Amino acid sequence: MKRWFVFLMVVAFFPAVAGTGTLEIGGKVTHSDVKMLDVSGEKVSLADVAKENGLLVMFSSNTCPFVQQWESRFPEIKKWADKNNVGMIVLNSNYKNRDGVDSYEEMQKRAREKNYNFYYVVDKESKIANAFGGQTTPHVFLFDSRMELVYKGAIDDNYKSADAVKQAYLKDAISSIAKGENVAIAETKPIGCSIKRK
Fold it and tell me: Cα separation of 24 and 60, whole Å?
């Protein structure tokens, strides 16, 4: 009887999770014209940030331990994206933490402390995260020049140490689209903290 109760509770909860969208490989970017508030005070959309070879969208946050492990690699990723003419934008979609650790003021503070060299914006009401099916912080979505999804998942295969990385999934994918090649590994499992979505 107890097992049936647990099963029913899981089934009852599942629709709330399944209600979010899931952008599959080959799918077109959505909500690209939605303006979002950057830590600089500027409002930008995904379309504003995209460059000739594509767009990198990353879901992140201020306090997730996984983000903090990968965070030192963010500026390097931005330089790599710039080198390959790919735009980069980082979204904070943690709606339920907006009055606390993921407030706009805390985002600004984090960006200053860590010398962010990329757009770090508020995904109001988790709109983009819900449309894409963003699961964790971090979780990356890479679009090519046609704004079609070519890679989604983790940044690389070792969040604990940049020196121990054997497969740099995201950087390799960016290099591939800049060369007009197919991305060899199009999807990996995202690792991080759950998005505290609306």
Answer: 20
Spatial separation of the C-alpha atoms in residues 128 and 134, rounded to whole Å: 8
Q: Tell me the mean pLDDT in the region 153-159.
A: 97
Cβ(28)–Cβ(58) below 8 Å: no
55 sits in which H/E element: strand 55-60
User: What pLDDT score does 32 carry?
Assistant: 97
**Cα-trace Rg, the chain:** 17
Closest CA to 49 of 82, 21, 93, 92: 82
Q: Report the predicted TM-score, pTM, of the whole model to 2 decimal places.
A: 0.89
Residues 6+ apart with CB under 8 A from 53: 84, 85, 86, 144, 145, 177, 178
CA angle 93, 132, 10 (to 5 degrees): 80
Structure token digits, residue 134: 């963003």
Query: DSSP characters for 111-180?
Result: HHHTT--SEEEE-GGGHHHHHHT--EESEEEEE-TTSBEEEEE-SSS-SS-GGG-S--HHHHHHHHHHTT
Q: In terms of Cα–Cα distance, which of 48, 28, 38, 61 is closest to 132?
A: 28
Residue 120 phi, psi dihedral angles, 5° rounding: -130, 105
How far, in Å, CA of 19 to CA of 16, rounded?
Answer: 5
Cα gap 91→159, rounded to integer Å: 19
CA neighbor of 91 nearest in space, from 117, 69, 55, 124: 124
